């Protein structure tokens, strides 16, 4: 498929069926603004999708890893049962950035999607669930896709943490940074989306636009409209990347 010159920077036809899972409708609608045509609502058991031209389904999956996993799994199952499985799942939205590496307004693409608070508190400190002898705490998106997305969008690659409680203190931010020195951002859905994708054998990607610093909650420092605009701009540059990317080559 050729990308017409006049549609460069818009979502266009892709050889992949792509599921984009955001947390809330505002994020979903930001992605939809990059579509090359009208977006229509499609109902599936347990979920409502917004279908963009070219094989992109947009899902406001809900806030937090549990609801994100359940909604994403429902969409993946419905597509598989219909004989139109997805070739890629993208967890997308806004999130907090770890200063100074991911300033407000910047983009981050995950090369590791890590559950930061899945485990146990002990007298010696936090233990991830893997050190308790079961489970997983990290999913790794395809490295070549991460590199291509970073080059196309200007996003910085690094670890994106998934938390069930948003960080609200400098102490908590410092503790997360010490445990995860490559962390660039935190959000609440990526690991849940990745778990659902892994259960279906589908590769996953996470892309975040930074709306606020990780640390003390200061609403005056939040730049949510700017982050949503950055998210829309990033998705406008993804179609050429996915046009040439083949998950079967992994």
Structure description:
By secondary structure, the protein is of the alpha/beta class. It has helices at 25-32, 65-81, 143-153, 170-179, 190-199, 224-235, 239-244, and strands spanning 18-22, 40-44, 47-52, 56-60, 88-97, 107-115, 119-122, 125-128, 138-139, 156-162, 183-187, 204-213. The longest helix is centred in the N-terminal third of the chain and has 17 residues, at 65-81. The protein is globular and about 50 Å long. 47% of the residues are buried. Residues 1-13 have low confidence and may be disordered.
Key structural traits:
single chain; 250 residues; alpha/beta; disordered N terminus; globular; two-stranded antiparallel sheet
Report the sheet-strand fraction.
25-35%
* Rg, nearest Å: 17 Å
**What is the H/E string?**
EHEEEHEEEEEHEHEHEHH
Uncertain ranges: 1-13
Counting DSSP H or I runs of 4 or more residues, the number of helices is: 7
Number of strands: 12
Largest sheet: 5 strands, mixed, barrel
Q: Helix content range of the residues, please?
A: 25-40%
Strands of the largest sheet, in order across it?
A: 5-11-10-6-12
How far the N terminus sits from the C terminus, by CA atoms, comes to 21 Å
Question: What characteristic shape results from the CA principal axes?
Answer: globular
Averaged pLDDT: 90
By secondary-structure content and strand pairing, the structural class works out as: alpha/beta
Briefly summarize what is shown.
By secondary structure, the protein is of the alpha/beta class.
